[in-house]
């Protein structure tokens, strides 16, 4: 599916033109709660949506829950035709909008699909994605995360790739530092994971390189100083990272990170940022016997060196330490004991809920339960 995209603070006019060209008269508007107003998006959209029938939905939790999606679908009046869905917010908001489109006509939304009783047949309604954080890349992907209980699932279909993605860097200026830091780390880590994925291609690696370089150069000033040029850089990095993972998906750090979020409340991007430097070193110890990439273990090591060089480092060890240092500079805790992970029982929870062979099998080095336990043990 082809996507129209635009990056720039004048992107509101692009949205207006799209709505007029498509003769959009009624809109399901999916937003966050407070950020929609504080970011300036509400005021900017007011004129664009004037005269149209608008139903706003914002009553859902961060990290989309199956129950939330089902409840929203039962309440939005699906028999009242909507001409478009517009989503404004972070990754959770964009994912909720994609899930609504995915399960619009489902008899048993989300659960029927997860149980294997229903095929996924997304609605054809146009979807416009306007990210107000830089990190998830959800505006550029054809999949969405949904939690059923504490378990994370991925829903994928080409038809839920947003038709129009408009990235407006100025929306990032109002983000609280902790949110900006965590989401920005997500963009950096997505770029890194996509680059080392066993499914990487020349196209995905070019996108990932752009994401890594821009995020590394822009992240600190975007978060700490709200520097305009850096905000544009991290916004572009996030979109490029999203496009990269749309081709490769993420790897082991993302898979394990969801347990940190579900059981210990660590922000997603923060959780991934804690794990990527550890997996960077773990993957660098790849051998012929545990290499999952058909291009070979030496090729994998050469790619990890490229990642290190993109971070301005001479080797993997210094690159890993540089990422840890960046986390601290952004105000993100690096000591897992201070995040509630203090004992072997806590490690057991992370291993039990973060290790799934299907989710870590695109990592370049084989991940075993024992290997993951040892890796996590280094963090406490």
UniProtKB/TrEMBL annotation:
CDD domains: HEPD. One of its GO terms (biological process) is antibiotic biosynthetic process. The keyword Oxidoreductase applies. Keywords: Oxidoreductase. InterPro entries: ADH_Fe/GldA, ADH_Fe_C, Alcohol_dehydrogenase_Fe, PhpC. Residues 6-169 form the Alcohol dehydrogenase iron-type/glycerol dehydrogenase GldA domain. Pfam families: ADH_Fe_C, Fe-ADH. The keyword rRNA-binding does not apply. Residues 181-378 form the Fe-containing alcohol dehydrogenase-like C-terminal domain. Belongs to the iron-containing alcohol dehydrogenase family. PANTHER family: ALCOHOL DEHYDROGENASE, ALCOHOL DEHYDROGENASE 4. This is Phosphonoacetaldehyde reductase. It comes from Persicirhabdus sediminis. The lineage of its organism: Bacteria, Pseudomonadati, Verrucomicrobiota, Verrucomicrobiia, Verrucomicrobiales.
